[in-house]
Amino acid sequence: MLWSEPAGMSNPGQTRGSTHFSLVCINEAAYSEIRRFVVIQNKGSFSQCIPIQTYRGQGATKLGLVVEDHGVIYTGHYGEGPPPPLPGEAMTKHPIRVDSVYEEMLESSSRINFGKPYAVEHNVKVCNIGMVADEHLHLLIGYFRQTMDMPL
To answer: Could you tell me if 18 and 74 lie in one domain?
Structure first.
């Protein structure tokens, strides 16, 4: 989906592609990009989602991340293994496979962040990239609950 958020005050354009910035109300900068999410729960007019990001190809080696909140997420067919971790990644969660639709593929550096849930309204345009594989649903739910300190 197309995701927009405040650009922040520090070094706009230094850590993100400057073509994604726009000037909005009261001369504030906004940053927009295509973001991918895993839907955790439909809540009526919105869904509770967790983000998938590559961190510009750095995966979970990006400085400042809470590494224990992250895991590998990948597209593939049943029996296909995940991409190898990037050099220096120290994630402990088992990878989660997505059965893709329309041959949509996640980049090998895609990481799911269980610790940063978002509310995504149902009135926005989205593109379905697939479904979490049945054999990995328990991992998705368990890791989300564990990270949010919810009862297992």
So the answer is: no
Rounded distance between C-alpha atoms, residue 74 and residue 94, angstroms: 11
Q: Are the C-beta atoms of 68 and 119 separated by less than 8 Å?
A: no
pTM of the model as a whole: 0.85
Question: Do 59 and 119 sit in the same domain of this protein?
Answer: yes
Burial of 128 (0-12, 13-18, 19+ CB in 10 A): exposed
Q: Quote the CA–CA distance of 72 and 92 in Å, as a whole number.
A: 10
- Segments in the chain forming alpha helices (H): 137-147
Pick the closest to residue 31 from 8, 63, 56 (CA basis).
8
Q: What are the angstrom distances between the C-alpha of 87 and each of 50, 58, 69, 84?
A: 24, 10, 18, 9
pLDDT digits over 84-93, tens only? Answer: 999 999 999 9
Its domain, for residue 25, covers: 1-34
Q: How far apart are CA 54 and CA 36, in angstroms?
A: 10
Indicate if 91 and 126 belong to the same structural domain: yes
> Would you state the structure tokens that stand for residue 33, as one six-digit string?
């990009």
Query: Where residue 146 falls among pLDDT bands split at 50, 70, 90?
Result: very high
